[in-house]
Amino acid sequence: MITTAKFNYQPHESELERASNSYLMSLVAVIGGLPLPILNLMASIFFYLGNRKSTAFVKWHCTQALVSQLGLFFFNSAGFWWTVSVLFYDETATNYYFAYIITLVIFNLIEFFSTLIIATKVRKGQHTEFFFFGDITNLICKTNEDIK
């Protein structure tokens, strides 16, 4: 799920800290506003916007954190509004609802722990990529040329 790759230069200590913080920003938002999926995405968007003009390493990791949050945002939003309709309207909680919520919890736990691991590795100077979102980030950023 998480791979370590080479970046085209060795980042400085301040870059490592800012890149690591891009992942931690979404985790802080989870703790602060767990039931609202928009808060995680907004935290990543604001951190990304604040670091748009930063170095390639920081920009790449801010983009990966944003893309990974965007990937979960739609699933979390569907689960949130489905739960609201079950609690406050005449919608019934079916087996499909419980299966979706359990799957959603598992995906969010995987993402939570993956984000902790990747933030730690980036802080140590290792350029790490998520399985699916790293490839998308490479297409978006084009700041890390593949070194073979």
Descriptive account of the structure:
The chain is mostly helical and 148 residues long. Helix content is 71%, strand content 5%. The chain has helices spanning 13-32, 37-50, 56-88, 95-123, 133-141; strands at residues 2-5, 127-130. α1 runs antiparallel to α2. The radius of gyration is 17 Å and the shape is elongated. The two termini are 21 Å apart. The relative contact order is 0.20.
Index terms:
two-stranded antiparallel sheet; 71% helix; 148 residues; elongated; 2 strands; mainly alpha
Mean pLDDT metric: 78
- Structural class from helices and strands? mainly alpha
Instruction: State the helical fraction.
Output: over 70%
Q: Output the radius of gyration.
A: 17 Å
Give the overall form. elongated
Number of domains: 1
H and E order? EHHHHEH
How far from one another are the termini?
Answer: 21 Å
**Poorly predicted runs of 5 or more residues:** none
Largest sheet: 2 strands, antiparallel
Biggest sheet strand line-up: 1-2
Count of DSSP H/I helices? 5
Report the portion of residues in β strands: 5-15%
Structure summary, number of beta strands: 2
